[in-house]
Amino acid sequence: MDVPVSHRDLYFLRRAASDRPIGEVVRMRATHEWDPEAALVAEQYVQLYLRRDPATENCIFLGQEGCTIYGLRPRACRTFPFDQNPRGLLQIASEAKLLYDVCCDKDLVSRQDRKAAKHQIGRGVEEFTLYRELVAVWNTQVKDKPETQTLEAYADFLCRTVELGGAPQP
Ligand code: SF4
Fold first, then answer.
1. Residue-wise over 102-119: b if at least 16 C-beta within 10 A, else e?
2. DSSP character for 52?
3. Measuring CA to CA, which of 11, 18, 29, 126 is 20 to 30 A from 132?
4. Residues 141, 143, 144, 147: is their CA dihedral positive or negative?
């Protein structure tokens, strides 16, 4: 499972890797126009994910001692290995085993706080609702201006929105 990146995640990734272009820490994966998280970047519809180390396939933020950006890690990492079933109950995500293989902190599952995970999942639902709205605004703004559809400009747009709304809590 790849780690998806929202506007809030980008904001924190920029802080965590302030010396690097955003393209070095996130990658774009082509998707379809009708995907609600599909943003127009470089004349194609894409979603954003954390990059992996090409040699190991691990997340690029995985160090010898575990996650090197733990306090600023994306929402998906905060809720891992849980998600919520349609009745609102916490369950181990079906992709958890896969993420566990490429990630991370090997004690995470046993240390995970279910109450905290549930809280993070709730915030994640709100966050991705807003993210989809932002993507739609971005797409409208850049649709006929391919020269403006750069990854850095998209990241600027999303991060600016976070800043205008006040920096969120990690
Ligand atoms: S928690 Fe794991 S997947 Fe998430 S940023 Fe850290 S190392 Fe990467």
1. bbbbeebeeebeeeebbe
2. B
3. 18
4. positive
pTM of the complete model: 0.84
Radius of gyration of the CA atoms of the chain, in A: 16
Q: With a 6 A CB cut-off, is 103 part of the ligand 1 pocket?
A: yes
Q: Report in angstroms the alpha-carbon separations of 122 from 65, 78, 129.
A: 29, 12, 11
Whole-number Å distance between alpha carbons of 157 and 149: 11
d(CA 33, CA 124): 23
- Coil, strand or helix at 91: strand
Give the C-alpha separation, 2 to 4, whole Å. 6
Ligand 1 midpoint to CA 144 (Å) = 36
The model's pLDDT over 20-69, given as tens digits with 9 standing for 90+, comes to 999 999 999 999 999 999 999 999 999 999 999 999 888 899 888 888 99
Q: Where are the domains of the chain?
A: 7-164
CA 147 to chain centre: 25
CA distance 138 to 91: 34
The closest-lying atom of ligand 1 relative to the alpha carbon of residue 70 is: 6
